[in-house]
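Suppose a classmate hands you a notebook page containing two proteins, each written out with its sequence and a corresponding row of structure tokens. How would you begin to make sense of it? This section walks through that situation. The first entry is reproduced here exactly as it would appear on such a page.
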Amino acid sequence: MNAPGDSPAVITLREVYDIVQEMRQEVALLKTTELTKDVDDHETRLRSLEKWVWRAGGIAAAIGAAGGAVVSQVFTALGG
């Protein structure tokens, strides 16, 4: 319980409104900073990596198919 003479803290709607407005300004400022450029750059790098992953997968599939064909021809030529 409260000690004699202590009163509970009172926060008015005006104080809440003022704090919300300050936060809106800070968020707006963050949107215009270098942070958004870093995110865009990060997404560009991820897309580039994804392209290489798909290319590497395609190359590996082609090598596997060609290798299988070569091995098959070698076994056929050896009479296997």
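The notebook's second entry, a different protein, reads as follows.
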Amino acid sequence: MRIVCAMSGGVDSSVAAALLVEAGHEVVGVHMKLHDADGGEPGRCCGLDDAWDARRVADKLGIAFYVMDLRAAFRDAVMNDLVSEYVAGYTPNPCVQCNGVLKFTVLRHRAKALGAGAIATGHYARTRDGRLFAAVDADKDQSYFLHPVSRAALLETQFPLGGLTKSEVRDHARRLGLATAEKAESMEVCFLPDDDHARFVSEARPELVGAGEIVDQAGRVLGLHDAYWRYTLGQRRGLGLAGGPWYVVGIDAEARRVVVGPEDALQVHTLEVRAPNWLVEPSSLAGRTLRARVRHRGALAPCEVRGGDPLTLELLAPLRAATPGQSVVVYDGDEVVLGAIIRRTAAAPRESS
């Protein structure tokens, strides 16, 4: 089969492409140029060095290789989305937008143009018959980031690393003599080289006034802040308040207020969500106890999916600091059955049935 494989320039996508070649497929490597940041330093991706490393691996494997300029699409789908979400009072996850939305849309389009029957990436996840499963290596599992991928796309997707551990992937890279075998992993948001999202938002929307009050849950003013989008739920440091300890428990973007409270106010029992992506038939989940995750590698809490508009998840055990704008991914065993974006949360205990 002809397969288009995304090649970021890291060890994971390099080994994914190599394993497909070893399996006898005709592999076409595609590197996506997403932004103008230099990259190249440990913990960063998508720079010039990464494109060069991907090309070196493709040459080693003897496969066709293309670089796609996706800077405009990345700016619209990921960078501008991040700014808009923070301004609206949410805390977005740009890696979900990039990995789960942009890359798969682009890869499928390119694969069809090249006459390929499937796409592949170096994500740690598994897919079977259009269904998405967590990776064998729980420490590296990336199924959380892939929850927006449609069932139609999953039918045309291969994850060659889903059944491997990270150490096994490194071993394969060494065995094959790949230039990326010892390359450090990318861990940070690639287009925020200083990890300062607040400055990024302020520079993108200089006309906006973000300054306002810091208030407690009763509305009493405790202090002032210079930009509400600088704060996230659960934050304790940098508040500059007397007494406490205080934690950020809410963001009121319309009033430009940051709400603080005690740590127990962060315990959430109900999630109202938006943009749900069902990876199984919704009716099959009725009345069933599933497990919800609200951050990558975060704890799994038993939950029930409640239908209606808006869709809600009832948590049978509370989760701390479930944050509007972040993803919630629902698992049935190791299968992803539903992914969505948290719209708002409630701390009221679950009603008895």
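A careful reader of the second entry would note: The domain at 266-346 is CATH 2.40.30.10 (Elongation Factor Tu (Ef-tu); domain 3).
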